[in-house]
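Recap from last week: sequence in, structure out.
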Amino acid sequence: MYDNIRKLLVSCGWQITYDEFNIDFSLPFFRQTDRLNEDLLQASSEEFIIDMGWYPEGDPAGKLRALLIKNHNWLEPVSEFEDNNAAMLEEHIRKLISYAERGRSQ
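Predicted structure tokens:
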């Protein structure tokens, strides 16, 4: 699954700038709290960044959060999602990429 997300980002012209995403959604989260980090994956494309992490860090009851940032404005993300459903992860990333494509140079 994670390879699909990486391939999707690269195929759409995004550069992966940070990658420590290794959560195994087939295992209970409480068995891998060391993998539930705020900094998991970051990709950039022109003026946009997709930043993905687990919040709250180390908490098995937490969720995966991805932000779409434009022009390094971290205080006002353009779009975001939170989920711990692995089946929806790729769809959420597709939506962020699509949103970035529509929002270029606006």
